[in-house]
Specification:
alpha/beta; about 750 residues; binds 1-deoxynojirimycin
């Protein structure tokens, strides 16, 4: 048909706006899009909302109004088909078509569940964390359309009463730095370009900063953090994560010495942006802008919103408080450039992750994209490296052949799955199929033995001892005692409920849950000469010295995910030699908290820590503790001066036992005297090596001036002349002198 001139005009191609052109540089796209936006559209980009139906334990789960102009939706898990329908509304029906960024707490797996972060750190193999973060990203994107995970949680924590120690990499800043980087690389890729490819997702370093310092380990409590502590302990993992390219951070709930984190200009703008050059965005934590009222910072929603955005917090999670910014700008009380800056950062990340090019997620079945054999294999591989052998009297482990023998598995966690999965397990729930209980795996590993199972006492209740106590059943203990009497070997499955640690699961006491001490006692009395092995599941260090004395061996399983029971059986039978070490110190009792590596010198060493237990100075199990089925011997380290102010250190480590094993060499530095006093031992590096029986390897370390220096309360590094000691084991160390 011949076209009339007017029809021709109607067909004239409308030029694609620059911001939609993937060939344009990100900064140009950001600028172009920003200039087209109304104030309302900008503020919506700074708004993150749940849209209900979510299973996030922190969320109320009610349905809220969805707006296709919101910048982000969190915790949506209604499947990718529905998620894409929402996304289509944003991309196709809004004026500018800005896609929504979908966030979720993918902490130690999406469906395939890996060991919790605290356990991962104890593997001292960051490559495993990179691998499992990669898998988590793939599953979360393919099965949930997740673009952004609220992980890694990188907070250094000294108090195991705080429920959230389970989410982080322990108490040592250096370990946390290394694992933070690994997680960021796993989620985002090692090269900025990779992030654009679907299946790589943006990481979020949280919670910025110092939430873990909450008083008394209570959740959401006040934190009193000196600048020195901030720079020495709490900031380093964030700095490492930013250097690794993490695209976002989440500000924390806590009030940092008088200024709540979400409204803290020093941390969010001066440190993060001005000093570290971070150009991604910060999201507030759940309701933390509105909680400024509870913290008695401000009861005025507009003031709270303004204080947060001015301090540098860009996106507001869940409470919709940033809606109040509109009137402030219109009334001339808040310069629009503050909003523009925040929007710019959000848009930048959206462009960097390729969201405009790939707004829709694959619509596949979960069976097609989750639980792939290599994912499940990685779960077992990681679990093997995270389970810690805490005690092994008379070489009780590995077990000799149990053919024709009777094994009693006793304890409330023996037939459970959730105790291995833990808190924040994204879509994984109680799931015997993928996270088989110890009982299931014991039957598989000991086909020629009789396996008897008795819980012995009630399963712990996640939130209250009183609830556990109510479930007391008088028949459980006698049945367990009978099982123990007739057994050849006793496995005691003890420890926490899978949800007994995690957010708002702080505990005043960190002993075994109710009835478990009594259970251990009764079993030992019923079977005085039989080998008893405790298998303890927990999301934090537990203090159970008395029970520990009554058993011959202890495997601390943490919550090691889908591979937990498989790896436990492999270790029990000697197929795998345990190699994990503790990334967090175990106190003897709650009264000893805080007790951690990197502690500073006391003013007197000649008197005991506590008068009531003078024989119990020091922790129960220190950071770095963990036994093996073989033994390792360390030679004296040798130090030589290198170029440019460096020192080269070497130590030979020999496997002196009869089994192949892996050993983590942790290097501790002691700056003997400084104007700015230094820790008794500071972790400066670690390396895990594999050694055959009789084999010796030389492990080297280059100490750079940066490693020898310390950070002062203004975050500046300082190097002082003087004597240092370097050690890789308790028994040996070498000293050297730094002169400037
Ligand atoms: C609150 C938690 O503190 C945080 O870690 C989590 O990412 C958000 N809720 C979103 O679920």
């Amino acid at each position: 048909m011949k076209k009339t001139p007017s029809a021709k005009k109607a067909c004239k191609k409308v030029a694609t706006p620059l911001y939609k052109d993937p060939k344009q540089p990100v900064e140009a796209r950001v600028k172009d899009l920003l200039r087209r936006m109304t104030l309302e559209e900008k503020i919506d980009q700074l708004t993150q909302m749940p849209i209900g139906g979510d299973i996030n334990p922190n969320n109320p789960g009610e349905w809220r109004n969805f707006s296709p102009t919101y910048g982000s939706i969190l915790s949506y898990c209604g499947g990718t088909k529905k998620r894409n329908e929402f996304q289509r509304l944003a991309v196709e029906t809004t004026r500018l078509g800005i896609p929504i960024i979908w966030g979720f707490d993918v902490i130690h797996g999406w469906r395939t569940t890996f060991p919790v972060s605290l356990a991962q750190a104890g593997s001292f193999r960051p490559a495993l964390t990179e691998k499992l973060s990669r898998i988590s990203a793939l599953e979360a994107w393919n099965d949930g359309g997740v673009n952004w995970t609220f992980s890694p949680m990188v907070e250094v924590a000294h108090d195991p009463r705080w429920g959230r120690v389970v989410e982080g990499y322990g108490e040592d800043p250096l370990t946390a730095q290394v694992f933070t980087k690994a997680a960021v690389y796993g989620y985002q890729g090692r090269k900025a370009e990779q992030l654009k490819t679907p299946g790589y997702i943006a990481a979020c370093l949280k919670h910025f900063v110092g939430y873990s310092a909450s008083e008394g380990g209570r959740d959401y409590a006040y934190t009193d953090i000196s600048r020195r502590a901030l720079w020495e302990w709490y900031l380093p993992p964030f700095e490492a994560g930013v250097a690794a390219g993490a695209r976002t951070l989440m500000s924390s709930f806590n009030d940092i010495t008088g200024t709540p984190a979400v409204a803290n200009y020093y941390t969010q703008t001066e440190v993060l942006r001005n000093r570290w050059g971070f150009d991604g965005f910060i999201v507030s934590d759940w309701g933390s802008v509105s909680q400024l009222k509870a913290q008695r910072f401000s009861s005025d929603p507009a003031e709270s919103a303004a204080a947060s955005v001015v301090a540098g917090n860009d996106m507001c999670m869940s409470d919709g408080y940033y809606k109040n910014l509109k009137a402030l700008v219109e009334d001339g009380k808040l310069p629009v450039k503050v909003i523009n800056k925040a929007v710019e950062r959000v848009l930048r990340v959206k462009f960097q992750i390729g969201l405009f090019e790939h707004p829709y997620a694959p619509e596949k079945t979960k069976e097609e994209v989750c639980w792939l054999p290599e994912y499940l294999q990685a779960a077992v591989e990681t679990a093997r490296e995270t389970i810690v052998l805490l005690k092994n009297e008379k070489n009780t482990l590995p077990l000799k052949s149990q053919k024709g023998k009777r094994i009693a598995l006793i304890g409330p966690n023996g037939d459970k799955s959730l105790c291995h999965i833990g808190w924040w397990a994204a879509l994984a729930r109680d799931d015997e199929k993928h996270a088989p209980s110890l009982l299931t795996k014991a039957r598989e590993f000991f086909p020629d033995s009789e396996i008897v199972f008795e819980p012995g006492c009630p399963e712990p209740f996640p939130a209250s001892n009183a609830e556990t106590i109510k479930k007391f059943d008088p028949n459980q203990l006698p049945a367990a005692v009978e099982a123990a009497k007739s057994a050849d070997v006793i496995l005691l499955a003890l420890g926490e409920h899978g949800h007994q640690s995690g957010e708002y699961h702080s505990r005043r006491d960190i002993c075994l849950p109710p009835f478990q001490d009594e259970l251990v006692d009764a079993i030992r009395k019923a079977a005085p000469d039989k080998p008893i092995i405790a298998l303890v599941t927990a999301g934090r260090p537990l203090a159970f010295q008395e029970a520990a004395k009554k058993v011959d061996a202890i495997l601390y399983l943490w919550q090691s995910g889908y591979g937990a029971s498989q790896a436990t059986m492999e270790i029990l039978t000697g197929k795998v030699n345990p190699s994990a070490k503790l990334a967090m110190t175990f106190p003897r009792t709650v009264g000893q908290i805080p007790v951690y590596v990197n502690a500073h010198h006391p003013a007197r060493f000649d008197l005991h820590d506590y008068q009531d237990y003078p024989e119990e100075d020091g922790p129960w199990f220190p950071f770095g503790y963990g036994l093996s089925y073989t033994t390792f011997e360390y030679a004296e380290p040798v130090v030589k001066k290198g170029a440019n102010g460096t020192f080269k250190v070497k130590v030979s480590v020999t496997n002196t036992g009869k089994k192949a094993g892996a050993e983590t060499i942790i290097w501790y530095l002691h700056d003997l005297e400084a104007y700015y006093t230094q820790p008794v031992k500071r972790v400066v590096s670690f390396e895990k090596i594999d050694l055959e029986p009789g084999e010796t390897k030389v492990v080297s370390l280059t100490l750079t001036p940066e490693m020898l220096s310390y950070v002062n309360e203004d975050g500046q590094r300082q190097l002082e002349e003087g004597t240092f000691e370097i050690s890789a084991s308790e028994k040996t160390s070498a000293s050297f002198t730094v002169s400037l």
